[in-house]
Amino acid sequence: MRCVQSFIFGLFLLQLARGEDNILVIGSYLFSAVSCGDPGSPLNGKRKGWLFQYNNSVTFDCHRGFKLEGPNARTCLANQTWSGTQPICKPVPCEEPPKVPDAVMFGGGFVFGAHVYYTCNEGYKLKGPDTLTCGEDGKWVGETPVCKDYTPCGVSHDDLRARVVGAELVLICGGALISRRWVLTAAHCFYHRFSRG
């Protein structure tokens, strides 16, 4: 009974036949190195290693602000394929940005390089920058803005839905127009309450 086995040693293929009492070499071949081809580099990353022949390995790394998902190394196999799967570089995530009282935040996709913008609610004014950026370390970069109470001159905080009950309200308004484009004095209004009784 004969059993034939093949073994690869470096660039040699050795075929052995086993009999009942001995081992017989039936072939020894020198063959060109098995090549797996360039495995490529992940987007936003790089590959280290330039030998793509059998039993050689390459490693992968990501640029700043990105993290590797998948194997960090692959090896060229005898069947001319690379071990494992091709890794990818994903942007580093940031936690949810800080909430700013009396403000609305715009933006999304809280990952490296993303921006969020803040705008204050009516009656408030922004102090500081309006933008934060997700940094390479997963932390928000920039000073968190603050919305301060702000009432410009002449604007009343009176409830516009209010009614006068049991009194008269007289509005006195004035202003002068010189032409359709020019105003001599800005329009302004005053009010006075008269109580009945």
UniProtKB/TrEMBL annotation:
Keyword Nucleotide-binding: no
Domain Sushi, first and last residues per copy: 34-91, 92-149
Signal peptide: 1-19
GO-annotated molecular function: serine-type endopeptidase activity
Keywords: Disulfide bond, Glycoprotein, Membrane, Repeat, Signal, Sushi
Keyword Glycoprotein: yes
SMART domains referenced in this protein's UniProt entry, alphabetically: CCP (SM00032)
Stretches that traverse the bilayer: none
Database matches in InterPro entries: Peptidase_S1_PA (IPR009003), Peptidase_S1_PA_chymotrypsin (IPR043504), Sushi/SCR/CCP_sf (IPR035976), Sushi_SCR_CCP_dom (IPR000436), Trypsin_dom (IPR001254), TRYPSIN_HIS (IPR018114)
PANTHER family, alphabetized: COMPLEMENT C2, SUSHI DOMAIN-CONTAINING PROTEIN
Protein name: Sushi domain-containing protein
